[in-house]
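dumping this here before i forget
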Amino acid sequence: MKFTKTAFRAALKANDQTEIWHLTAVKLGRKPERSEVLHLAEELATTNRDYKKAWTVAFRDNECRRGAFKRGGFRQYDAFHYRSVALKMLRRLLTENPSNYTKVPVMGYTHLYFCYQSYGLDDYNKVCTCTIEGNEAFCEKVCEIARRHLAKLKAA
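structure:
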């Protein structure tokens, strides 16, 4: 994809955060800083409303906006980013001492979650990682590794 002012302005008008950050990355050829996104959005804004949106686009905390962030930020981080979250949670399960608050992988209807064993999917503090669709083998392998590890700990 190539950077065009028209595409950037359309993304800014639609308030498409992912597209704005992606187009800025394409223009710069690297991961942009927040200030660079802000300056580009302010420079290319055609209306006062779009100009006022520029700060929100650049400085809204991307980690907290899961729904609006379209599952992974830049397109190149899409599914792999959430797979890495699942691997990080699995690594944590394997290295830390088990307790009542140890989070284990549970496959929901659409996503792989890490939650407390006793609460299951009713846990309000669960971690949503990757979608099951398209990652079936990966999700099953993560659950299998966790099951084997927990069974080994119970046997010991």
